[in-house]
Prior knowledge:
The protein has helices at 17-20, 23-29, 46-51, 54-58, 64-74, 91-104, 116-122, 185-193, 196-202, 204-209, 255-260, 274-288, 298-305, 373-386; strands spanning 2-6, 13-16, 41-43, 80-85, 125-131, 138-140, 178-180, 213-214, 217-218, 221-222, 226-231, 242-247, 263-265, 316-335, 345-359, 391-395, 407-409. By secondary structure, the protein is an alpha+beta fold. Among the domains are: 2-111, no CATH class; 279-395, no CATH class. It has a four-stranded antiparallel β-sheet.
Amino acid sequence: MTITIVSLLDQVLNINLPTYTDYKFFSNLFESNDKGEILTIQIANKEFKFRLSMFDELSKTNKECLTMKSVFDGIPEDSRFLVVPNKIDDTIVLYHLRQEVDKLNGITGIHSNLDKTKYEIALLYYTQNFSGNTKRRHYIGEPNKSNRVCRFCGKQIPIVSFKNTSHAISESLGNKSIICREECDICNERFSRTIEPDIANMLSFLLTIHSIHGKNGVRTTVGENFKISLDESTKGDSSVGTIKIQLNQDLPTDIEDFFKEQLQLNTSFLKYIPQNVYKCLCKYVVSVINKQYLPDFKGTIDWINSTTKYNKLPFVAIGNAQVKINAPYLILSVRKTNNYRYPYCFALFAIATIAFAFIVPYTSKDKFRFTTSNKYATFQEMIQSWYNGFDWSFNKLSSSKKTYTPIDFTINIPSECKLGRDYFIVNKNI
């Protein structure tokens, strides 16, 4: 049995009771009714804080109990909190519970950033958030290898093996913590040489200049006439290091003229197939989604596994963020009703300063493919309304032909920065 603790703290605590001790331990920790059932509403009073010493003995064999005790100890004294059965990971349900905690503690004046229409749409969906930057690994799927079935090929031991660590989101994009147990070694290797390099190539420049740490550190972006890398040996307390830009071109006599020019970088080495990027984004969704939904995504999985050829797919919204996102962040929504006006599953994926909002195609719970403007318009309006912090453009990622994204930019050196102190220009031929 799992219980969820919702309090005035930002952190929501999920406790798997058998992992720590028996139910009796927590029935002694929390207030219970005459039948010994844990009450939903609890008070973090002095008596409750005193009972937290129960964790001390337990922590001798389970160090995670110290963390749990710390969370409980951090709940404001005399405030009310909720103990709810089951693991609650639906963002909207948690929103309701947090609102209830606020009411129990007499907190008013907090308004939702969802207007009535947005809120009604939100209620249609079961929503989960996944962050690739948490200190603890988040494992998806069956812990026992002998019982695992690969989500992508449907095979299990001994036909396939599960020896390697399969990152649910590409490690090259900075994911360190979200692990899919149900991706076999064969599929993992296949994706690493087919669709995953495409999204890494598409985002290479952003991954470098925003110092996103992948499997082998920060990616070096190399083109025909340039190389951009990060030198972390110069990293100080307030910096990420030194960005190095190597150009294969002659510098003008007046170096100030150089900084006024727009640099045109030849990125033809960084080719990618647009549809493979779309496939990779949907592969992330299949990797993390609750197992109960997987049968609805058979068509999606077949498409991800297929040889890439032109398919008319929904537009993908690509947005520019105002702030840097240091690790991959995925928001996944699955429709709970039969309101076919809205897609069965859509997601938002963000890293560095870019975000993708996309419909997961080929599910069995969609009546429409959302490839025509009138069907897609509802989703487009929803994305622009919900995530108005992004500057969105709507793009076709249906092509199966290789392409690349040209990079033109200008180096703006602040007037207070001094040549030879804050930045350096080196001619390697001298």
